[in-house]
Amino acid sequence: MDAAAETLKPEAKAAKAAEATVEQITTAANTAFKDGVEKTLAAVSEANTHSKKNLEAVVASVTAATKGAEALGAQAMAYTKSAFETQAAAAKALAGAKTPQELFELQTAFAKGAFETYVSELGKMTETFQASFKATVQPLNERVSDTVSKLQATR
Fold first, then answer.
1. DSSP letter for each residue of 77-102
2. What is the pLDDT of residue 2?
3. pLDDT score of 7
4. Both ends of the chain: CA-CA distance in Å?
5. Do residues 114 and 83 lie in contact, with contact meaning Cβ atoms separated by under 8 Å?
């Protein structure tokens, strides 16, 4: 029996070595799988966060654009009302003119005032539009900058 026990020893050693090797491979595979899953979950979480921030930026941009459009609309309505009132007053004044010279002077004064008011209002509306455009683009620009910096960091 001693000989049989001695012949099993090398086989037992080989079996134990094979078992240890399989255990090492299994442990390494489990660790690699666990690390891969954790990295994937982290990437998905980061992508979700990025998408959420993008959506928030779009909402902020649309809100700013809406406010800008409302401001421009209010300015246009105020100018239209003022221009109508000015035209009505000018029509009354023109109707009351006693001489062609007076009529010509009133018409000239009205035209000059209307043009100056128009240019002034156009300048105000341009300023409002520019401010609205900046406010509309800012959140989107911030997201693009963030994305570009993240892409550059991965290089």
1. HHHHHHHHHHHHHHHHHHHT--SHHH
2. 54
3. 56
4. 67
5. yes
Closest residue by Cα to residue 154 from 46, 55, 31, 49: 46
Return d(Cα 49, Cα 53) in angstroms, integer.
6
pLDDT value for 22: 86
Residues of the chain with pLDDT under 70: 1-8
What secondary structure letter does DSSP report for 116? H
CA torsion 57→63→67→72, rounded to 10°?
70
For residue 154, the 8-state DSSP code is T
Beta carbons of 94 and 111 less than 8 angstroms apart: no
Cα separation, 41 vs 147, whole angstroms: 19
Structure pTM? 0.68
Q: Tell me phi and psi for residue 96, to 5 degrees.
A: -90, 0
Give the chain's length.
Answer: 155
d(CA 70, CA 117): 21
- What is the Cα–Cα distance from 13 to 8, expressed in whole angstroms? 8
